[in-house]
Amino acid sequence: MTFNPIATLTGTNTTGSVQSAIALASRKTGIDFNYLMGQAQLESGMRADARSGTSSAAGLYQFVEQSWLRVVKQHGAEHGLGWAANSITTTSSGRMMVSDPGMRRAILALRNDPQTASLMAAEHASDNKDAIESSFGRAATGTDLYMAHFLGLGGARSFLGAMQESPNRSAATLFPAAARANRNIFYASNGQPRTLAQIYDRFTAKLEDGAAGGSAQVGAVSLASTTLGDSGATVIPGNGESSTSEAAVWAKATLDQINGGAARVQNANLMRPTPDTARLAYMMLASLGA
Predict the structure, then answer these.
(1) E runs forming strands in the chain
(2) Predicted confidence (pLDDT) per residue in 104-127, tens digit
(3) I need a surface site. Which of 23, 39, 108, 250 has the fewest CB within 10 A?
(4) Exposed/middle/buried for 92, CB within 10 Å: 0-12, 13-18, 19+?
(5) Residue 92 DSSP one-character state
(6) How far is the CA of 35 from the CAs of 43, 154, 155, 269, 282, in angstroms?
């Protein structure tokens, strides 16, 4: 078979690739790919099976149970999850419920599926974007959207409003429950409470770092597509598309080193590539004349 990395990134084959799942969600919802990459890196380190030790948060985007049930109820049917959306009900107090325990477990387990998690994260961000822009009369930034994911929409509105009035106010005094569950965010290593502005700025920097790392990897996959497409090579990855993606990153990093540059290689092991990764990377480099 002829492997097409670009098809992977545009939804022809999204199985087993976090990056391609995020790209598909971005394409379907219009939410910026770099923001979704940065959010996933910040939330879970790009691990689809990540779990929080201090809350019910799980998955690539660390949705807590109530937030997940709410977004699946609202948007699941749009993405082939009508069976899940129809099983979720809302109580008079606004709490999301699933009466059948087995069904509830199945719906919550979807948080660990990269494609479903990415789609729901993008839909959640889209809803929050509209609400924040309506509340503050300005374009929502990626950090604004992340605050809405982290604190809930109501919490984000309170955070952003308070920061606008008093940026140097201690965030922990406004959000004591969140501070208890996320001490490393609300407090510095010396125990000093961080201000609203400090937390906001730290999230901005971390989102940018995560997006930069993701963009570098996608750029490397694009390199693989150009290289293999022009050469007409047929590639059968031994470990699926992740092997090809890693090979592309490995090849790009090698080229950058040859040219005196520095590549972000968070998802490639340059010291010990697998045989499949090394073989694919060699083909990419060879077809570029490197």
Answers:
(1) 88-90, 96-98
(2) 999 999 999 999 999 999 999 999
(3) 108
(4) exposed
(5) T
(6) 12, 21, 20, 25, 32
Specify whether the CB–CB gap between 20 and 8 falls below 8 A: yes
In this structure, is the dihedral angle defined by the CA atoms of residues 84, 58, 28 and 146, taken in order, positive or negative?
A: positive
CA distance 24 to 146: 20
Nearest to 283 by CA among 213, 225, 211: 225
Q: Residue 85: how many CB atoms within 10 A of its CB?
A: 18
pLDDT tens per residue, range 207-245:
988 777 655 554 444 444 333 333 333 333 333 334 445
Instruction: Please name the residue ranges forming H helices in 30-141.
Output: 33-44, 65-75, 82-85, 101-109, 114-136
Tokens, residue 243:
């092997």
Tokens of 9: 């990134």
Q: Which residues pair with 109 in a beta bridge?
A: none
Q: Which residues contact 1 (CB under 8 A, 6 or more apart)?
A: 234, 236
Cβ-based neighbours of 108, under 8 Å, separated by 6 or more: 58, 65, 68, 69
Longest CA–CA separation in the chain, Å: 66
